[in-house]
Amino acid sequence: MKTSLTVTRIAHACQLIEIGDLRIVTDPWFSESATYHQGEPLAYDVASLGRVDALVISHEHYDHCNLDALVAGGFDLATPVFGPGTVTALAASKGFTRLHTIEAWESATLGELTVTATPGQHGVHEVTFVIKAHGRAVFFGGDSLRVPELDEIPARLGPLDLAILPVNGLCIRPAGLAQVVMDAEQAAALTAALNPAVALPHHYAFHSGQLGDRIITRGDQDPRHYTDALARLAPHVTTRIVLPGTPVTVP
Amino acid sequence: MKITVPAGSLRPARTTTVALGDVEVTLDDHDRTRPFLVLHGGGGVASVRGFANLLAERTHARVIVPTHPGFGGTARPAGPATTRDLAATYIALLDRLELADVTVIGNSFGGWVAAEMALLGSPRLSGAVIVDGIGIEVEGHQMTSVRGLAPAELAKLSWHDPAKAPRPPAVGGSGPSPDLAALASYAGPAMSDPTLLERLRGLDLPVHVIWGESDGIVTPEYGKAYAAAIPMSVFTVLPGSGHLPQLETPEELLGAITDLGN
After folding, report:
1. Where's the Metallo-beta-lactamase domain (chain A) (predicted)?
2. Looking at this predicted complex, what is its ipTM?
């Protein structure tokens, strides 16, 4: 019998992934600022999060690596942190003690849990991850661009039960509309290459405020663009648009 | 890719619990309105009222228009109050109203107050629009002093087409009006803050600076310096408009505010 695999979006790219009794939280973001809004309700705050066995963090941006909110909320700083060197250095400076630095194609194992960093590309150094435990495998795409090496994941790391991908194609206006996140079409094409049983979009409700959306960022806030593209490119992959706080169980 | 979602449709519902005597009601609040705070200049609240109404009608926004304490016959603050104090008062107002993602729009002196609000770093404020604002000191582009000017002279400086200026109401009595006294007490005799330009360089909020091309009180060059000081700013010149675009070209001002980035 397969070990249960359930994922619940807390908001944005912050996901609670439960594999059996292992509870893993990705890219934590629990506060808001003037120009960073989740655009969707937070399913949990730090206090209601419960036991967390590992934090898996793709890069150091505020909306993915909100360690200050964790510290302020009394989060257990002995919780293992998996991430690239940029993240673990920051985590060390905030008082986290169990740090696992992994760069692309490197793995770290903690008991039943193995986290492998996979390539990523963004405005700053970023990795994505394949998270494995008890025979289940999850791809976590953070808010990376689509990079060709990601297509090698099934060949190198085996089949995936679940893929979680960003879809808003975020562009930075002051940088000449440079794209820093994969868009719906690119995410669907990557999903087709990864061929998971279930694929979920995330990282789309985010906005920079009513003026910030016009001056700082431009992003696609409609996850249906992803599910529509996936229906064309990989109709056999199951996908769902889920609200924060709704658990999705992967068969 | 075309973004087809109507503005604000993916905003979160806020869940709150309201205590009503012995009963507690938990409710989801699906509020899709985007709040604006509109701040008037020396012309008083009447100079922005029509535009605020236009903004609310066209964008289905919530538009809040305070009268600066001391204007329009309202009570002046008990103690001395500067422009910065007024900005802090309005941040406290946003806290009291529990508003988020607020864009503050200010004209003339109101633009200065908007800049000072932005500098206070409140997470409730997510952007500022400065329309022909005052308050900075720009070498070679001083603000034109309006002290003691006859209404016709003031209209000539404030309007692209002075013939469009409303005729000032005949006021009885002599000496400065209460509005001007209130303005002088907030803005000080120089009507500017020599530290403002430098402080704006550290601002990390998006700001849209909009200027009437025929503004004879603070010129478009002055406006350009305002925008240049702010790291995340966009500068827009409105043709056929003066110091009061919300009165002279309200449709064009609304277009500049809402069309940015499209």
Report:
1. 11-203
2. 0.79
